[in-house]
């Protein structure tokens, strides 16, 4: 198989979480990785972790530079790297694509040597010490070529994506920004605003909270600084999604003013929610409709989960997936075991014989 | 211990999911349960499941009636049950409290013999066949006495709550409705409106969806008919919560019009979300901060989970909780094992020795 890098190295500029993880993954895949970072101690840490070697002072250009810096810094770094001959082609990892792409087009002499990338992977902790070689395994890696993009830039970015185990997909920068506005940025806004309503609420109200509001607000714990930057960078794409949502909110609130007369509008909006949700995988979405679920009550005695799985194994039924739901503050839980349809009765009967309490 | 029911029965009127579950739980606790339902076949099914005996034609009053009917029907049934002498006191199970309480006060001759209850438990499927004796285990059971409520009504409702394993708490009907508006009804609206934005979205946008939007929209799958009724019944308490949320949404959208200048407002709203979220238990909330997490990569070969738990058990480390995250559409998953802080290194080392890939 032809070496997409033609025997040359890949240069990673910026050795934070993503850059260092890329270095680790590419090194593991046998690529010669060179590293650079504005901060010597950060660079040293990444080198020490095995993410690659320091970029040499001299020598030929890298086949590709992956510029792992914040969105607003991408164009300047890409320009410098290409114009100084540190790399033949360049890509980035920023979570918005129109901003860096437009700035590269304006400021860089040969913008076709750049193609935007967005590996959709991350962790809540940052820095080189948090880096993982398998950070990108199975995650989408979006690549956004435009009419002027050189084919080699795309070929090499695709090669990086595949080598680190990601799932590449191409779309325009505008399509990308609209997509992440819908499925990542607006949900974050919505979760944060719902969670904001809890901040000053009386204790007796919060005490009634169950798994529902916990799910809705989970991502509201994300770093406010990071998300301020993300929403600022993608404001133009987020605004229309929020406008649509606010329009629906206005209609729902008007319907609640005359609750009985408003029921058809309520029903329509709630049905729209069911339809929209069914497009995603998850507990009641497409990914799980292929399984049957056996629900087992567990208490908090040590080793219960291990015994449960051992007993399920002894029953000869393969457990495909599992979820545990805890009653808040209680020493009880329900373990939901997903199995192939047709095997659930057998598993339930076998577990009952071994003393487990099966629900439903 | 004094029998709170003084040797008499508890009458359950309405043998759907909640009524039949109550019957099963109270019967298991040794209470003489009598059942009634407008539909003979539904009553017969509940009796057949062991939830109690049919209400006799004659005989003395039950100590307490639990009226398990929809909110708008509560007052009429409570009135009839008390006035005809079928029970000495009555409570209900409706998920709103101001409406039935006000209607009972207006229409029933001795309204102090009624106290409102809301056992916060349920299932997505309904009907007597879905009933479970442990439906209420560890769940909140809210009781809403007012100035005129007879103490015996409260004593007997509390006794039911405790006998079925629920966690009783008292508050006013107004406090209850405001509480569920905040922690249950508004989150449902928010999830449904976010999910509604996905309904017509292009495939390439939805394909980038990850666990975040899946969590935010999970409860949007709930029954639109049921939720239309709930939101209608609690419209007065839900409106102010939505007004607060819309105010914050307006501020956020205005900030996005001038993204850089708007950053302080964005930051403030996002921080409010972090603060609000921290008041709930969950993945990064109070309930889990006491555990350390070991993250293990698994693929989809049969028996992986059973082997993982067996190996964890062999390591002598108790697994307290587990979550599985799947990369959408990929045959890979990350299993997060919660263990007591201080035991995670030992578990990780032991699992690595047995060939598992540990992340982070």
Walk me through this protein's architecture:
2 copies of one chain form a homodimer. With 360 residues, chain A is of the alpha/beta class. Chain A folds into 3 domains: 9-171, Rossmann fold; 176-250, Orthogonal Bundle (6-phosphogluconate dehydrogenase C-terminal fold), CATH 1.10.3660.10; 292-359, Alpha-Beta Plaits, CATH 3.30.70.260. In chain A, 44% of the residues lie in helices and 16% in strands. Chain A has helices at 17-28, 40-48, 74-83, 98-107, 151-163, 173-198, 203-206, 211-217, 224-233, 235-257, 263-277, 304-314, 344-353; strands spanning 10-13, 33-36, 53-54, 64-67, 90-92, 114-119, 140-144, 167-170, 292-299, 321-326, 332-339, 357-359. The first copy, chain A, has an 8-stranded mixed beta sheet with strand order 3-2-1-4-5-6-7-8, with helices on both faces. A 4-stranded antiparallel beta sheet of chain A has the order 10-11-9-12, covered by helices on one side. In chain A, helix 5 (151-163) links the parallel strand 7 and strand 8 (167-170). In chain A, helix 3 packs across helix 4 (98-107), helix 6 (173-198) crosses helix 10 (235-257) and helix 10 (235-257) packs antiparallel against helix 11. Chain A is globular and about 70 Å long. The interface between A and B is large, with 130 and 129 residues.
Key words describing this protein structure:
homodimer, 360 residues, alpha/beta, 6-phosphogluconate dehydrogenase C-terminal fold, Alpha-Beta Plaits, 3 domains, four-stranded antiparallel sheet, globular, PDH_N (chains A, B), oxidoreductase (chains A, B)
């Amino acid at each position: 198989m032809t070496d997409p890098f033609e025997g040359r190295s890949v240069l990673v500029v910026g050795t934070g979480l993503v850059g260092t993880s890329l270095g680790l993954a590419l090194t593991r895949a046998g690529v010669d990785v060179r590293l650079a970072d504005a901060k010597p101690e950060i660079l040293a840490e990444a080198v020490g972790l095995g993410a690659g070697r320091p970029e040499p002072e001299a020598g030929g250009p890298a086949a590709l530079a992956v510029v792992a810096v914040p969105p607003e810094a991408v164009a300047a770094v890409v320009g410098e790297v290409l114009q100084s001959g540190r790399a033949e082609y360049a890509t980035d990892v920023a979570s918005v694509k129109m901003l860096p792409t437009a700035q590269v087009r304006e400021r860089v002499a040969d913008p076709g040597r750049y193609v935007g990338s967005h590996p959709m992977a991350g962790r809540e902790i940052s820095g080189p010490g948090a880096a993982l070689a398998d950070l990108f395994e199975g995650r989408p890696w979006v690549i956004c070529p435009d009419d002027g993009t050189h084919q080699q830039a795309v070929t090499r970015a695709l090669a990086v994506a595949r080598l680190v185990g990601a799932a590449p997909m191409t779309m325009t920068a505008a399509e990308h920004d609209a997509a992440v506005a819908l499925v990542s940025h607006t949900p974050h806004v919505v979760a944060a605003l719902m969670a904001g309503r809890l901040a000053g609420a009386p204790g007796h109200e919060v005490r009634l909270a169950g798994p529902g509001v916990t799910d809705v607000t989970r991502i509201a714990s994300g770093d406010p600084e990071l998300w301020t930057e993300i929403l600022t960078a993608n404001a133009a794409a987020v605004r229309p999604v929020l406008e649509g949502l606010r329009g629906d909110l206005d209609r729902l609130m008007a319907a609640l003013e005359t609750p009985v007369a408003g029921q058809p509008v309520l029903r329509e909006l709630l049905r729209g929610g069911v339809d929209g949700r069914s497009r995603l995988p998850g507990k009641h979405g497409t990914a799980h409709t292929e399984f049957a679920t056996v629900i087992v009550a567990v208490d908090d005695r040590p080793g219960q989960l291990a015994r449960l799985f051992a007993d399920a194994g002894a029953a000869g039924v393969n457990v495909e997936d599992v979820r545990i739901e805890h009653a808040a503050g209680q020493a009880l839980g329900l373990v939901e075991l997903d199995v192939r349809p047709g095997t659930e009765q057998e598993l339930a009967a076998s577990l009952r014989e071994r003393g487990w309490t099966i629900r439903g």
